[in-house]
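User: Quick sanity check before I run a bigger batch. Here is a single chain. Can you write out its predicted 3D structure?
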Amino acid sequence: MVFKPINLARQGLVKTFTHNYAQSLLAASQTSSASQNTFFSFQNNVSHVFGKSGPPTVFQNAFPNHSSSAGSGADSGSGAGAKAGHGSSDVSGGDVGLAAYYAAWQKHQKNDEKDKDKDGDWHQFQFAKRIGWKAPTTIPEPYTKQTSETEANAPPARALLVRTQSASVLEDTRKTQQHDVISTSEQSEKVREQRIAVAEQEEVSEEVLVLASESIARAASPQTSRTEDANSLWTATDATMVSDADHYTEHLTHLAETQQYDGVPPTFEAMLLAGVQPTTSAYNALLLAAINIPRGKHQVVPKVLDVYSDMLRRKVSPDTATYAILLELLSARAMETTSMKKDLTTRGARFGGMESRKSFLFASDQTEQDILNEDDSLSFAIKLFDTSAAVATRHLFSAETYRLLISACAEQGRVGDMVRIFADMESQRISPPTSIFAPMIQAFAGVGDLKSAVDCYNEYKTLAGLHDSGRIFIVRKDEEVYAAVVKAYVICGRTKDGLKFFGKVQDVLAANPIMRSIQDAVGMQALLPQMLAQDRHTEALIYAAENLTSSARSQAVSLICCDAADKNNVIAANEAFSALVTSSAVDMQVPAVAMLAMQIRNAEMQAARAVWTDFIRSAPRVSNIEPTTMYALSLIVAGAEEGSFAEIREMFGRIRSSSSNKQNRMEITERIDEAIELIGIQMTKSACSPSAYVTLLKMMVENGGLTPVAEALLARLGAAEITTLPMTDLTMIAQIEAELLTSGPVLDVAHAARFAHIVEILISGNVYVEGVAHNYMIKALSKIQRLDLVTRLRDGPLALNQAPPSPPYSQLYSPISTVASLPVEDNFDPYGASTDFKGSAVIVEELEKTHGRFGGHLNEALSRFKNIRRAGRHPRYTTYAKLITSAAKDGRTELASEVLAIAQQDIPLILSNRIVRQGWTNIYDAMVAACLTLNNRTLASRYHQELLNLGAAPSANTFGLYITTLTSTHSTLDEATTAIQIFQRAKAEGVNPSSFLYNALIGKLGKARRIDDTLFYFAEMRAAGITPTSVTYGTVVNALCRVSDDKFAEELFEEMESMPNYKPRPAPYNSLMQHFLITKRDRSKVLAYYNRMQAMAIQPTMHTYKLLIDAHASLEPIDMAAAEAVLSDMKAAGLEPEAVHYASLIHARGCVQHDLASARNLFDSVLADAKVAPSAPLYQALFESIVANHAVSAEVVDPLLQDMNQRGVRMTAYIANTLIHGWAELQSEDGLRRAWKVYEELGRSSREPSTYEAMTRACLGCGEVGGARRVVGEALGRGFPDAVVGRIAELVGA
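Assistant: Done. Predicted structure follows.
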């Protein structure tokens, strides 16, 4: 049998300091520190790695010979333990980090390694020369190649591990990783020389090509390519190659700047295959892609260093940006490594191992610790920094680069390097980031240099003084700095002096509100850690109770509780935990885990059970796997596993379901595998109940497959134990044994006897299986020569009276036909046995692809869907829902209904089963959303009712679709009223509103100018704890601009830009630009917001350019040249001007310059241009020009209206307003009649408040008061805001 593997190596100041005593910072600043003290956070995600997993494409390469003494190099290994480093600062060196070639060389030299060590010579490999490739004259489009169906459907490979040999294998794994990691300079130099000798035979770095191949599937190579000498590759002229290099570099830079990192590797590969020498900027883009394309956390740095190594080998000189990218990555990695080491230390002390507390509970943690201990990211970063300083006297690194590098040095205690780098930063005249001072102070204290720590504080105090005087701006970090200074005194053994210094600070800041936060910071970061380090837990509790604020006090007590529990201080831990029980300001799960571990270590199972009861109700987290495993082991040792393992199984299931990310799910599954294996090993050493063994087998099956300990568990089930198990469990065991006997290795005779015995029991109880499982059982019985049972199985009714309790690990389980009438467990999925989980994941991944044509992805997903059903299986519930949603997105109504019908056939609804009801809730919710997307609200109501019949309701996002799809069938005001009704219905049906639902509602209300309702629901959204998005802010800002509340709009705009989750979007900027253009008539404000938009790197929209044209062409002083230049700017940006842009110019010529002839000529020329589609704004601009020049007549207007109808351009409220005003100016009966005609043709639902105002004024101007009152009466009945209709009503004295 092929067992499911367990991956144990999981991804895998300078200044002369003169002051002797730290003085109060407030001596330099006492006024504004509270308002200016903000937090600065740097997030550098180093848990993602470049590319996707998969077999790399093999290329034929030829490397020219270089001198093996060339300067610098980088060694990088592969796998979780791979590390990289450079042994020299020679930038022009030829180092290569190609682990694949090194491995090949090792294999070739294995037999004569001893001789090679003696005489020092070796055999040079003769690689095949590169296949020639003509350099293209233009940048080729990225090309793709479909992988075979087998590759596409192949599950992620997980290395096998025999559990009975896990200890030795772990040791071998650890040794192998230690061999791969470059831990000393001597090892680094030796491996580097070996790799350079091999890599000098090649011209193209296979590592870079593999990086690119991991992001796309290539098209087939040309079949007519011929082998050329390496020098014959450069056949194009130098001018052509330079041009191509510029094109490629520009494109790669653009991809990196726009964060389209997936497109960088294929473009870079195309550049190499075209024979174009990569530039420094091109490599910088590839480095950024290597950092930002996700993969395992330990693989980012090796991948990046592979790219850098290839860069050096090609003699491409790094620039400042290159060094900055590498320095920031390596520094962040070094700090992350320090943090991970601390976490592993805590976990080791808390959970310990089965043999000793000094070991880890999971062997994978020991492997990870070995990887982290050999991490030399900071050393390499410092070497790179020295290299950059040697090649450039002014390298102009950013303050952020220096911050990361200095902080990393401070955390790892490399004070000399820290001071040297700080000196370099000052020599470059870069203002020090304030966040570095606290780590530096602590670093000096760590080496006992209190004087330098105090002087570092004085340096910060000087900056604070300059900030308060307005000469510079800094982000104040007063709390952290004060805490660091006090901690420095404590670390250096001068606690009294530290408290004396802090007392002076308290005296100065006694009346300042910031003093409370400073006091909390000093207590949490300086005094309490020292008390805990000295095991003074009781004193720490007293200090926290007397000196900290309520929120800080809860965090401090939690910290004290965890530390006391980890150190087995039972009294202090219980006292702290009791104090936390009544607190709601702290996460109770962390101290609960520490308390649970302490009680288990002390064999206090009754107390542990009390904590466990509350623990299993908390939110599931990955970190809960270890305490759950520890508790399970303690139950086995205490002989109390009977009945309790169901809770362990439930907890593992909740943890597994807590993450929707594929990579995280795989890591969680592997960690649960390791936990189950540990539990199984302990069970084989103890006498457990049969139900416990079966429960553990269920855990394995639910987690995706059996582990090697499964055979030992099955061996514990003798005839006596089997008779105590229910038919459900026996069915599952029989199917497992059937697969073991038919597809696994040769088993002992006990398996055959056990299987036959279970089958006899099942047949006697009239329990039969069908489909694939039935066939496996027939084969297994035939193999063990039990033909009598084969006959009885074949003759029996193929009906499954009892279903397996959990999802399968293979295709043993079969579809269930009569399950709808059977009682089932509430947490059991009766269709899980026939669900193809891997196939479902492939379908979802296909549907979520963002490149290529969506219809093609949908067809491919449908093909895989049919293949799954053809094999007698079916996908998950959510996969049906995803297919329905995708069909609606592609506009295929019949397909959505077809998928629903198939779901009803494959997985019939079972109202009595909770899992099935939840699955069908997702399916019906997808159908409601699909019908709304396809504008079939009647059918949506039908499926909505189906959800209500299930006791469920559509999701919040589906209710949001109810609102957003109102546009085509409702007027603006009716839409707003209906939107509120839909929102209230959602809340009445028990739906918790989402940000999308609030955004949809606020958008409709803002469009209808119902500003009070808009602000009400905006406030309600915040009060509900839903963070407004940039879409929300943009909608509210637009609504405020519509009612001319520009002050509040600008306040919200500033708040929006300061939000940490702000994603720049053009809509809010356009709203404010339009407001200051139309309402305030302030060109400077329009251009100011346009400049802010550019500063945020937001691409202007077509509407943005229209507003710019209007600003230049309609606001004094008129600048038609600048207005027309905007069209050129658009074309330069790759945008083709539309009718609305020409409409602005027509309006400017006709209404502002009063040149009707010029306006008409421009109008006619635009209509004659096939590139420009006629639209209402174009006609509106001409009608406005006609009215502004008092040229309204039937001879002029009627032909234009007829032309509008012929071209399919509909009448709008704004065109109607213009014509009504123009006809009314004639002051004639015919003019009023024509105005009424325009008013009626527009239709009630399309009339805006401005339309009612125009018609009212037209009637009053012609003396028709009755008509005016009738118009006002209709306006009042439309539900417009009072501020809007009040102005209209005043015209008739209403």
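Confidence is low (pLDDT under 50) at residues 1-102, 107-241, 797-825.

User: Great, the batch can go ahead then.
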